[in-house]
Amino acid sequence: MRQKLLPEIETFLGRQPLPLFIGGAWGPAERGGHFEVRDPGEGQLLGRVAAGEAVDVDRAVRAAQTAFRSAPWARLPANDRAVILHRLADLLDRHRAALAQLESLDVGKPLAQAAGFDIPNVAQTLRYYADLAVRTRAREPIAVPGFEAHTLRVPYGVCAFIFPWNFPLLLVGWGIAPALAAGNTVVIKPAEDTPLSTLYFCQLAEAAGVPPGVVNVVTGLGETAGAALAAHPGIQRLSFTGSPEVGRLIGASCGRNLVPVKLELGGKGAAVLFEDAEVETAAQALAGAITLNTGQVCCTATRWLVQRKIWDRFLEQALHHLQAIRIGHGLDPESQMGPVVSEKQRQRVLGYVQKGEQAGARLLLAGGPATVPGHEGGYYVKPALLTGGPDNISAREEIFGPVAYLLPFESEAEAIALVNRSQYGLANSVWSADLGRANRVAEALVAGNSWINAHNLFAHGIPYAGCNLSGLGGGVLGPETLLDYLRAQSVVRPRS
Ligand code: NAD
Asked: Does ligand 1 have an atom closer than 6 angstroms to the CB of 398?
């Protein structure tokens, strides 16, 4: 069943294949290739998109270099850049309905989530970093006896970005807003599954007056366009969000060129529920967390550690909420959980449940494929709950679907040890009425983020990053992230 689309989305998708955006101009890939993008809710073709390759990446990097060197963007006072970025944020707000529809269609996420969180968050990110850049001193005096000195903060040049498919535009915002506010130019390689909102964003950037070459987008496959961008000697920085496997390749490429790299990678987050937690609230929140974006959230709670005394009560509540979830097409207003992004992802999720069971885990909620009437070609799965030993494959590896693994524990020390045996280190949460204990445990968990009595907490100004297998290089969303995109230079003379 083809969904009814807004006229601007029909027009946008009518241009086939959707072109690359390089140096302020829209055009095909040099060698004419393209790839297909599907609506995961239907399994049907949404459109064809230009498949950029190394030659296109090279054109984009050169355009970004030219824009950095000759256009005024890097030399504009932060205030003037902020005016343009605010205008872009306002345009995002004005086009929220269209962008949300496109994002919902491309990723499969419920429209209300795209319209209520993803898209407005991008506008807020632009405003946050634009304003922060205005308040950041370009020249900072250094008080050292015998010297007249200051630190100069200048943008690096061309910053490259490679993004995954789960929060396409949200992550573009978190990634490029600080780089742009600092005066850099950017080249973006969106995920091949979900490139649409990034291209639409470029239309708005043009309309907002972002100069040509400041934002460039090369759509294409990871092994071609992505690899070429990571290996390009003309980039000054690279930020990658995606899997640890690809992160390693990107890190190696950047290492060869001595390009600083930021890696935001996967996770296997835990939630630790103590017996004094508000069980009903926690069960509802965790069922919401594991089904948010159909479980395709890097930082979500996937291992639920439950103190034995509350195991039965918690499980009953969790099952109730998971079984009640309404699965459907992202554009259906009744849907609470959409499809996963692709058939490949569906097989991955179903495969992990199977492998977990084969390795000795017990199914508390069976999961499996879901069929949505009228949308039989979509990539739907049901939520699943497993329990078993802590070394089961489903307890160790990132599944990236609505599948949680329950583990019982007795003591605080045991819970901490169970969480910290993961190789990942992105985000965990602690649930307890005893805030002293909650803080103590939160601080003992090895990860970039520890949340208390909630999971998936984000705010501009609170840094979000991973450690160990979950990433390196600084993270996003914090005030420090702006400084990641400003090169510090000491200017010194002897004081006479
Ligand atoms: P992925 O690593 O397969 O792909 C990410 C991007 O890398 C895509 O644009 C892809 O085209 C590109 N790519 C693939 N092979 C490449 C190569 N050889 N060289 C250069 N680029 C290449 O990840 P995915 O499946 O798109 O996303 C899921 C992963 O992303 C999960 O592990 C998830 O946890 C992680 N993620 C992390 C965060 C975070 O903030 N830490 C946020 C979202 C997603």
From this structure: yes
